[in-house]
Amino acid sequence: MEFRKITDDITVSPQITAGDIPAIAEAGFRAIICNRPDGEGVDQPGFDEIAEAARAAGLETRYLPVDSGKVTDAAAADFGQAMRALPGPVLAYCRTGTRSATLWSLSRAADLAPAEILEKTKGAGYDMAGVVRRIVNGGKTPTDTGDARFDIVIVGGGAAGIAVASSLRARLPNAQIAILDPADIHYYQPGWTMVGGGVFEAQSTARTMASLIPRGVHWIKSAVAAFEPQNNAVVLDGCRVVKYDRLVVCPGLKLDWHKVDGLVETLGKNGVTSNYRFDLAPYTWELVRGLKEGRAVFTQPPMPIKCAGAPQKALYLSGDHWFRNGVLGHVDIQFMNAGGVLFGVKDYVPALDSYMQKYGASLNFFHNLVAVDGPARKATFKVARPDETPQEVTVEFDMLHVCPPQTAPDFVRVSPLADAAGWVDVDQNTLRHKTYENVWSLGDVMNAPNAKTAAAARMQAPVVAENIAADFAGGSPRASYNGYGSCPLTVEKGKIVLAEFGYGGALLPSFPKWLIDGTKPTRAAWLLKEQILPPVYWKAMLRGKEWLAKPETVSAK
Description:
Elements: E1 4-5, E2 10-13, H1 21-26, E3 31-34, H2 47-56, E4 60-63, H3 73-85, E5 90-93, H4 98-107, H5 114-123, H6 132-136, E6 148-155, H7 159-171, E7 177-180, E8 185-187, H8 192-196, E9 206-208, E10 218-220, E11 224-228, E12 233-236, E13 241-249, E14 254-255, H9 263-266, E15 272-273, H10 281-290, E16 294-300, H11 310-324, E17 331-337, H12 349-358, E18 362-365, E19 367-373, E20 378-383, E21 391-396, E22 399-401, E23 406-407, H13 410-413, E24 439-441, H14 454-472, E25 479-480, E26 485-492, E27 495-501, E28 521-522, H15 523-539, E29 552-553
Parallel strand pairs: 2-5, 3-4, 3-5, 6-7, 6-13, 7-10, 13-24, 15-22, 16-17, 16-22, 17-18
Antiparallel strand pairs: 1-2, 8-9, 11-12, 12-13, 14-23, 19-20, 20-21, 25-29, 26-27, 27-28
Helix pairs in contact: 3-4, 7-14
């Protein structure tokens, strides 16, 4: 007997016997559903035998037999009705448990998100990929999928998606390309740090999506619900299906605000802010200007996150403002970092550490934010230092800048494209999927061990475009990504430590040292961030002009 729990209400199991009933009752189950027809196997006990033993143990039963491979909409409805009528928790079984898991999935499709259903069943050991379209369709068999087909489908219209679409158009002008993204507005997210520091206006970081979609590229304004790579298909919300010859996955990542108890309820008030949201970055600047004394807490969650330097960028620009206005001595700055180092590439740490000392910031490593009480102005952290028993500490604050926990989007995390950690599983050099050869990925959602930054996407887009073009021509990948990422660390207003690095922390400077020494704070790097990079983003990167982004050639084997 094997219990495979899906939720607190339902557990599924392979075939059980009457002898298993006492253990089932002892485990706390109050009802049993049989989804296996009698006589399906020669060694199979009949349902009457199971039901009699269950009655003796005080358990209710239902017999809802389903032939293997023939789970109908009506059967799923009957299963849902039984779940509502029976006392829980319920154990459902068939030969392997798959039919029971499928019935549950379809019965809950009308009120649970597809990704949640796929995640829960996957956690129990069942792959619902075969019925994903029915799940997306509210548990019903689609009558008209309304398929559209393109040579290349790009999931995501952010920095990576628009850039790769433009690079593909330049190389494959006759290819039919579509971008799938439900958003109306495209944001220059690297600018939000500057908004929170009072340098940029928020509106300067936003443009309409329609104005940025490359000419000749189709825009399907819809969210993705699931992937069917075995069918070369993407399933959209509403169960529309888009077919592809080649797929590019770059929807960005998910900011998991709900993972911190109480955070969502207090964001944007009670002194709680974040530069990771367009509407909150101006509130950061409001809080910084208004704070004359008290405690300012800045948090950083476990990796990976996009722009790993952003949490401390907020700290530096805030500290610089308080320093320039003569109130720094009255502000207690606390940096709460879930990791164990200030920055992942050691060459940049000395310069950054000197600014932490300048602003009198206390460095608290292995501190992960788990709860916020906004009205009480208290933040709780789980402290998990190596070789020590984890504990929780609560800190009072006057201002709290939060960097939220981050994961791959739900529809990616539960898909066949994901690795065990939920990220799209690619070759780190060619950015081609390790299993599905007509799938590529770039940007924050894939699992290459590089920094998740817009600068990284700028380098990745030509690599993916070049390799897809080679695939169109019947060749092998010919471009290689070296892991380049850039993090302009705004250590004060007017100076930046320009961190540029690749795989393994190798330094990859774009400029000669006499112009910009990336390991030191420079005025030139600030001018690059403030005046040059925004137009490069809007007018070059998103338009397929690959300035300083020529792909490296794959080494011959």
